[in-house]
Amino acid sequence: MSTVIPFEKLYNTRDLGGMAGEGGRRIRSGKLIRSGHLYFASDHDKEWLSGRIGLIVDFRNKQEAKEKADPALPGADYVHLPIIQDMVTGITREEKSFGQIMTELLHNPEGALAYMEQVYTTFVTNDFAISQYAHFLDLLLQERKGAVLWHCTAGKDRAGFASILVQHLLGVSREDILEDYMMTNQCLVPEVEPLIAMIQKQVHDDSPQVRQVLEILFGARTEYLAALYEKIQEGFGSFEAFEEQALGIDQEKRARLQEMYLEG
User: Fold this and answer.
1) What is the dihedral angle through the alpha carbons of 257, 262, 263, 264, rounded to the nearest 10 degrees?
2) Distance CA 257, CA 138 (A)
3) N- or C-end of the chain: fewer Cβ atoms within 10 A?
4) What pLDDT does residue 146 have?
5) Number of folded domains that form the chain
6) What domain range is 246 assigned to?
């Protein structure tokens, strides 16, 4: 699995280094980092990131990035690359999104699960999202000093799928990809538990049903990836075909990514 970087305030920032890729070769450490947003980074966290990060890719929409802007890091370029332009309950984290959660899904676990599955499939069916992920992969093909760090808000959905794309292109097994994706739940406990408590207090409802809905919306679930993989299979026949036909990653680019980011 990826390695959690022991920050003070950034709980879901992980180095993909060490994961087994194509031909058993390991992903290089200090080159590919997945994360949640950096707004709450402590001075210690920012000191660690400064000089190590060459590029920050921010997948949040305009409003999210405005409300909780990333700190400027010496030596790091910043690219704003929103995957979803509008507010989406459970995915984007603008202040208004919590009110939408309360009115639409808070007492409907089955609906919340179906909703999240549908959101994940938009990552591979929506033309705008696909073009943004293609741009992200093009950025990875550019030589630079330091690591590429990509993030959304929690580092679970938009950044999670970006991580899946990278891992798949580097030859990580689907089993390891799934394990790494689900590891997000452990990393996010310090963020999700206070968030759930806050919403329960706002709606004056601490019932098991409400908690179940919030865990569905704010957690990683195997069902989300199953829906995503099924949609790719329906539309393209294989993950490799999706990467080539939709994202423009041919065999030459795949080999280049592996040369850049795998050891040996």
Assistant:
1) -60
2) 10
3) C
4) 96
5) 1
6) 3-261
